[in-house]
């Protein structure tokens, strides 16, 4: 269930793993598991760089649950 105190987070195009975890009220490890399993899509602009999750990807995942 999304964090009700942070609705503005999805106003951004992309969130970090930590921001996504805070929004969904789960651990960052859980977000990585969602990404690894294909439940949540993520982008990495450069190899070894920061992973970004699209706000639309979060909404799609929540609709599937």
Quick tags:
alpha+beta, three-stranded antiparallel β-sheet, Multidrug-efflux Transporter Regulator, Chain: A, Domain 2, 14% strand
Can you put this structure into words, describing what you see?
There is one protein chain. With 65 residues, the chain is α+β, with helices and mostly antiparallel strands. The chain has a single domain, classed as Multidrug-efflux Transporter Regulator, Chain: A, Domain 2. The chain is 43% helix and 14% strand. The chain contains three helices and three strands. It has helices at residues 17-24, 28-37, 55-64; strands at 14-16, 43-44, 51-54. A three-stranded antiparallel β-sheet has the order 1-3-2. Strand 2 and strand 3 form a beta hairpin. Helix 1 (17-24) packs across helix 2. The chain is globular. The model has no long low-confidence stretch (mean pLDDT 87).
**What characteristic shape results from the CA principal axes?**
globular
Biggest beta-sheet profile: 3 strands, antiparallel
Question: How many DSSP H or I helices?
Answer: 3
Spatial separation of the terminal alpha carbons = 10 Å
Class in CATH?
Answer: Mainly Alpha
Strand % is: 5-15%
- How many domains? 1
Class of secondary structure makeup: alpha+beta
Uncertain segments of ≥5 residues (pLDDT<50)? none
Q: How is the largest sheet built, in terms of strand order?
A: 1-3-2
Oligomer: single chain
Order of helices and strands: EHHEEH
Q: Rg, please?
A: 11 Å
Count of beta strands: 3
CATH architecture: Orthogonal Bundle
**Integer average pLDDT:** 87
Helix content: 40-55%
The name CATH uses for the topology is: Multidrug-efflux Transporter Regulator, Chain: A, Domain 2
């Amino acid at each position: 269930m999304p964090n009700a105190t942070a609705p503005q987070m999805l106003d951004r195009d992309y969130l970090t793993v930590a921001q996504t975890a805070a929004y969904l009220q789960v651990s960052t490890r859980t977000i990585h598991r969602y990404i690894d399993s294909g439940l949540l899509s993520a982008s990495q602009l450069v190899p070894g760089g920061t992973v970004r999750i699209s706000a639309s990807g979060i909404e799609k995942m929540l609709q599937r649950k």
